[in-house]
Amino acid sequence: ENFKPAQVLDSLKVPDNHLAINRKLHFSIAKDDDNAHFEIDSSTGDLYLSKELDYETDSHFLLQVIIKDYNNPPQNSTVFLSIDVEDKNDHSPHFQDDFVVIGIEEDVPVGTLVYTFNAKDGDGSFLNSKIEYSLEVSNMSENPFLIHPLYGTLTTASPLDREITRSVILTVFGEDQAINLTERRLDSLAVKIVILDTNDNSPSFMSSPLSYVLEDVEVGFLVHHIIAKDPDEGRNGQVTYHILSGNENKAFVLDKITGVLTTAQLLDREVQECYSLTVMALDDGSPALSATQVLTILVLDVNDETPVFLKQLYETAVHENRDPGEFVLKVEAMDRDAGLNSLLQYEILPGAGYEKFKMNSDSGELVTAASLDRETQKVFSIKGSSVKCSPSRSSTAQLYLTVLDENDHSPLFAKTQYQISVTEDLEEGSAILDLSASDEDDGLNGEVTYSLIDDTYGAFAVDSVTGSIVTTKALDRETKSQYTFRAVASDCSTHFPRSTTVMTVLIQDVNDNVPKFEQSYYKASIWEGCSPKTDIIQVFATDLDSGLNGETEYSILSGNENATFLIDSARGILATNTGLDYENTSTYRFLVLLASDRGTPSSNSTATVLITVLDVNDNPPVFSSPEYHVHVKESIPIGSHITEVSAKDCDAGTNAELAYAIISGNDRGHFCLDGRTGSVNLTKTLDYEDTMKFTLIIQAT
């Protein structure tokens, strides 16, 4: 393209076989073609450059050359001439802009296309117009970008971070690739790459996660200023504050713009001494990013609480007879305040028996100050106090202390001896006396057991627990009227002596015995004819009872209908009340005597007396008939029974034994009389003609 005008570029030649020699030819360039750059010699066909060429304007020309042959016959021909313009590196690469500002988001991945540089080079040939790109970084030690040398594409070579590098200044070079290095041309372009923010950073808390506030602050008091930073910019870095949790009771309010946390209600450390608020810092990006912080708010104590004992009533037991200093119990009070505000002092308030104890003012331990005696005082009811000094606040608790017993006392009977009277008719198992022995000790030590140590002849026993003396069999005063034995009261100790008392039991009589005759059947006899009031027999009845119950009176119960007899009521002498006649009544078989005592009710028994009236020979024999008439035949043989006489004598015994005798009329001895039976028998033959009749006088003596 740097070929100078007026120089012959080329010359058109007509082949010999085409045109005759010496033919007259005329060369011209067709007018229609863009032939401003070329001229042709019409006669010689030499082609001239009429003006300079510019490869970058026209790199190729196609000329239509008309050749006219003026010979005869004239002929015309057309030749197309193709002209290629060779490039000369006469243009430098050229960027469209001198300065480019490019924005790219910081979160693009490595290899992201940032920008494509397109430098132009007016040269036409390949190497002269082929541009190779390069770049330089002016404000960074490491270049986060890479440019493709051929395509001019600028890409990320490493991750970008706007928060570290907000922008990068680059110089981009475009250089052609002329073969001759010295002819190479270049151009440069200043590039500012602005790293555009993306919401890739969460807010970060700068403020402390711990805050303190006094419990007595007013509502609206500034508790904490929450600060969070977000390195992003714009809305991505605008932070608002929110409470996510821990503020369920609405104790605090948080200004979401300023992050100022204030109290929304009165605080009470004793109700809640620590608040754990989960606070969120939220940016305004899309999507929004957040961060959370657990803000611990410690409520500082103010001395506004009164001590409170863990128990309002402390109950325990302490042994008696122990040396002073014996641990009793430990009281403990709580003050809901903290630190020095909760330090307490313990003391015993004055009261009955409080001087026997002392309390450690720091620990609250109560110990004895003297030896205790349960039998003197078995319960102490004292008050303990917990006090704090500034300001003074206190509370009290009741201490109920029971003194535990030791077996240091023996049982003692109320009396050293007992005398009681009981009736003998008590049923078996009846209680006659409740012994009472007291033991000043307590519990098992004071539990008294009773026993008997002398022989009670099986009549009595004692309930070992109640001390009740009961009968173990039926009593009988008539067998034993008095019992003397000892009762013993013991406790569980084996070291102390037992207590004894003497029991005298007098058995009182009851009318449980009937007067008893010495015999149930008496026999007595008396001569008839005795004068009245004659003693017949003395009976005896014994009554084992005593007193009136044993005093016997005698009477006739039955068999004395005619009042024939009488009896001395005191002495039991049975006597006649009238004269007795044997011949009238010889025996009194059913005379029943009654022996009665004077008890109430009266008891009695009976005996039967058989009284035989002894005969006195005061009655002559009397024949059953004054005359006996007997008829016999004279022919009866000797020895025949003639008759029998019978006499009776009202007397008895030998007085009534009769003997019969013929005192007259049997002179010739015809008859014989059995003197015992009174039987008359024939002893001689009878002869009617001799004696027709016999008159015998028979005597009974």
UniProtKB/TrEMBL annotation:
The keyword Nucleus does not apply. One of its GO terms (cellular component) is plasma membrane. Signal peptide: none annotated. Keywords: Calcium, Cell adhesion, Disulfide bond, EGF-like domain, Glycoprotein, Membrane, Repeat, Signal, Transmembrane, Transmembrane helix. The keyword GTP-binding does not apply. InterPro entries: Cadherin-like_dom, Cadherin-like_sf, Cadherin_CS. It comes from the Eukaryota. Transmembrane segments: none annotated. One of its GO terms (biological process) is homophilic cell adhesion via plasma membrane adhesion molecules. Pfam families: Cadherin. This is PCD23 protein. The lineage of its organism: Eukaryota, Metazoa, Chordata, Craniata, Vertebrata.
